[in-house]
Amino acid sequence: MILQNIASSLMICFLLLLLLPRNGISARAPTVQQIRSRHGTREVIVDNGIIRVSFSSPQGLITSIKYKGIDNVLNPHVRNRGYWDITWQGENIRGLDGIEGTNFRIITQNEEQVEISFSRKWKGGSKHIPLNIDKRYIIRTNTSGIYAYGVFERLSEWPEVEMGQVRIVFKLNTDRFRYMVVADDRQRQMPTDNDRDIHRGHAKALAYKEAVQLIRPDDLRFKNQVDDKYQYSCEVKDNKVHGWISTKSHVGFWLISPSGEYRSGGPSKQELTSHVGPTAITSFTSGHYVGRDMETRFKTGEAWKKVFGPVFIYLNSDSTSKNPRHSLWEDAKRQTEEEVEAWPYDFVESSDFPSRQERGTVTGRLLVNDRYILLNSLFLTPAQSAYIGLAPPGEAGSWQKNTKGYQFWTQTNETGYFTIDNVRPGTYNLYGWVPVNVAAGSQISLDRVVFEPPRNGPTLWEIGVPDRTAREYFVPEPYKDKMNPLYLNHTDKFRQYGLWQRYTELYPNHDLVYTIGVSNYSQDWFYAHVTRNIHDSTYAPTTWQIVFQLPYVNRRGSYTLQLALASAARANLQVRFNSEYSRPLFSTGNIGRDNAIARHGIHGVYRLYTINVPGRLLRTGTNTIYLRQAKATGPFEGLMYDYILDNGIIRVSFSSPQGLITSIKYKGIENILNPHVRTRGYWDITWQGENIRGLDGIEGTNFRIITQNEEQVEISFSRKWNGGSKHIPLNIDKRYIIRTNTSGIYAYGVFERLSEWPEVEMGQVRIVFKLNTDRFRYMVVADDRQRQMPTDNDRDIHRGHAKALAYKEAVQLIRPDDLRFKNQVDDKYQYSCEVKDNKVHGWISTKSHVGFWLISPSGEYRSGGPSKQELTSHVGPTAITSFTSGHYVGRDMETRFKTGEAWKKVFGPVFIYLNSDSTSKNPRHSLWEDAKRQTEEEVEAWPYDFVESSDFPSRQERGTVTGRLLVNDRFLTPAQSAYIGLAPPGEAGSWQKNTKGYQFWTQTNETGYFTIDNVRPGTYNLYGWVPGFIGDFQYQNRVNVAAGSQISLDRVVFEPPRNGPTLWEIGVPDRTAREYFVPEPYKDKMNPLYLNHTDKFRQYGLWQRYTELYPNHDLVYTIGVSNYSQDWFYAHVTRNNRDSTYVPTTWQIVFQLPYVNRRGSYTLQLALASAARANLQVRFNSEDSRPLFSTGNIGRDNAIARHGIHGVYRLYTINVPGRLLRTGTNTIYLRQAKATGPFEGLMYDYIRLEAPSRA
């Protein structure tokens, strides 16, 4: 009873710990205090136990944020350190309004949160902008941050006014915060405000006040660098989180914008983020990169109201990390994802902020009809990755300058489908040009929306890429004495200072001339059409020429010049044909205040001009277009060009009738696959018959088109077994499906055996792709398992490039082509993955910005259940989908067919997915994120409704099984997060080695409920296991699933093995050895991916460390003294005698018993996570006695060599007579008796000693 009470108390403590915030600080319901400071000012203090925030009252300035022992995260030396402000202009007045409140209110205060208000009503006069403003702040229980939003209102009778920039600003503690982060590849140690002081001679003024050159910085690393806040601008769509890190305190300060609805100018609008100060800003609206067109102009009689925010001011800490910059930034991104997922927040009290239920959704599909590109095509083309959004009604493109309303944007998927959710009620245009009314709770489907891009005829030539930026054009190198090192060798190299000045140096005697068919826009078209610096401070217009050939001219016809501008700053572009000094055919007039040239942007406001060109102005032969930028009063007048381009999706070639994939053409790459090997996209199978063992490449002998229509093509490459020993005795039908508007290939196989065929063993079945070695070098298996990879050539031991290690798959790289890989170990087993986590993996070509992915949308056709480990991708570059194999199990996973046994199974479909992102600054991230998104879509679409084989049942032909799993371990509790599944009938746990049938697995929720859907008709057992408990669950009755059946099992109860109360235990019953001590790798034989990684067990050679750690005696573990995470080696291995001989090892568990029931029966529960050619012997209190228990020879998991942390789970319940135990000190001897090499051994999951039952 005492032990039971202790266990209950521990469980309560554990649950209470789960309720604590991640920061580990004592959290509580937030409190509000109103006090008067020592200076006589009034303050409001809100404290939730994690952070304490002080506000001036009633002004509503944030004066202090106390967090993690830092008394004030903000700068205590300035008055305004956490504040809102707004620029505005009225009649004869232009001002900056600090928006200080005049009234303080507590809106709500409860156990969940505090929301407070600092408001101000306009009462006339010119001191403040004529708006009613209510600044709100929310601090929630268990939340490490502050939610901030503002309600801005104007009454119709108030005077005309122009509202400029609206923002929230934080000036941080200068002694703490020096490291700034805007994006994965835009982060750096920053100079200080003092370094920018030109009056003290610390810095030198440059062409405009925001930019300075650092002459005498405190940190000499910054000497001669340029600092300019505009170098850290960011587009709204990418500007979800930015901030600062204190490396001294291991604390981060972040501004998170979970939505773009309240920001102006659409997804491509650029805003300031963080900059020297240290300063962090959230801008809701501003004229940056647009100009005065972004000012909000209110006319007399115009009423208006808008909610800006909420935004989340997030603080985090990590006192234990060796790399706090990385861990804090990753956590900030994770928190951002949580905030985005929670939007719109359900805790905002303002009635002006509609809840999710009060909002609507708009869905549809955007198609492009460009008739000259699609000539002779049967289909419209989907608008892939298009930005599509709802914004206030106006002309096409008016959203770029809209500030008064809300905007809701998304991107289409590869097939053009889009969903715009959480839309505020209102009337919008869908850009482009579809009027839409959204009501609360509405679900609007627009079906197909067709965009017809401007085009009057077929393309004769083109310059650039139509992406609304000038990113693809030539950006020169920066001046060495005026650069920002962050942007050296960076995709955003245009953010360097002074690049506009390089034009005159590059073209000293004449302006740019671009010849179609000869010039290359990435090298020969300057990124900005700027003025020419004559001398000193005088500038002249510039005229660029485009020279092109026309073999024939229709002089009576009308040609069209499509001229797309990415930016314009006080420019006037004049266009002439074949005469530089004639009257312009076209002039833009004076356009633009984007200022992108000076402010290191690569675009501003997009403008498109469709210019009619009479045929009489053109010539047969050579023609010249003169583009003159006629404004030239300074260095920053000019513009940036965009333009036109088009391409297709994929083209796949197969050998016939073999069915090998020989070529995949995609995004201009002639072959994604390796053209230098014959088998580059193929199936294979290992097998063994009587006196024969072989590898069958499964080459077909018959080709058929199964279906061909507007939606898809399905083709078959099949082979029937006609006797003989050349091939495995199976009929095999390999199928491939390519669908309209789909960037990939679906592949599946139907494998069949007739009953009269001979006995055979089937081993590994897989699909393999060997990729283009010149393109693919970056491999991705998971978020935290991705890296640049060595090459196959680097592994060549015969040429001395690599050194052989303990087994053939592992080599040490001695002379790699890339010296970064020198001495690293490469082994394909380091990238294995459990089936439940192995839904997508693949490769990225950073050169081509293309990804190649293998997606497995279901585990039903894979063998061994959800915890079975399989190979994924590895050096080659190679990508594999394994359907069944012996990896981490051994020969027990071979599929053995006896005479008289018929069988059929469908493997797949799997999806071979290709994606691209030519515009991303970080294609590794964007392509991987897109691959994960596509995987979610494939999982959602399973089982596919387009598969033609009658052996693949549709969703309607499948069944569903539901129920609730409870655990009875003295008490009845819900089985939380348990794995539960249907698999072919057998003993408990037999699913681990089952290969012939299908398996369907899921996890229970927190209350033990589960749903297993899309189950093929058949007879199954219900199996499972529960983390935290030993043993395998098996439901007592078989489950018969019929087509369309809905089976409810109500409550099923798992009684985990137990004979008495726990005396002591070692480990965690999770079927792995993950919790035990894993040593550090050898420095000269490591894989850097797994340094400081949760999967550190994947390093090579860790088994060898046992002998070094225990040179004189084997492991001794003392209950109550030792700690299994430090003192229990992860694998019970053999001892190396240093001469390639090995001896068994005997581990000891020493424990105390204050009393022994010598007539009673104790129980040792021994759960193994893995076994490889092992024999475990168990003895009590006598090392040399006859074993009380022996496993016998067990296991072929090979997890020790193959960097696994588990293989097949085994549980042994060992009866221990009380007479073998002693009052006082006892010792259990665990001897692993097999020792012919380094890899015999086992891994423990969990060990528990139970007292005799009290029943």
Automatic annotation (TrEMBL):
Is Electron transport among this UniProt entry's keywords?
no
Which UniProt keywords are listed?
Answer: Lyase, Secreted, Signal
Q: Does the keyword NADP apply?
A: no
What GO molecular functions are on record for this protein?
carbohydrate binding; rhamnogalacturonan endolyase activity
**A Pfam family the protein falls into:** CBM-like
Instruction: Supply one GO BP term.
Output: carbohydrate metabolic process
Going by the entry's taxonomy, the superkingdom of the source organism is recorded as: Eukaryota
Q: Which reaction does it catalyse?
A: Endotype eliminative cleavage of L-alpha-rhamnopyranosyl-(1->4)-alpha-D-galactopyranosyluronic acid bonds of rhamnogalacturonan I domains in ramified hairy regions of pectin leaving L-rhamnopyranose at the reducing end and 4-deoxy-4,5-unsaturated D-galactopyranosyluronic acid at the non-reducing end
| Listed name of the protein | rhamnogalacturonan endolyase
Organism, by scientific name, is Brassica carinata (Ethiopian mustard)
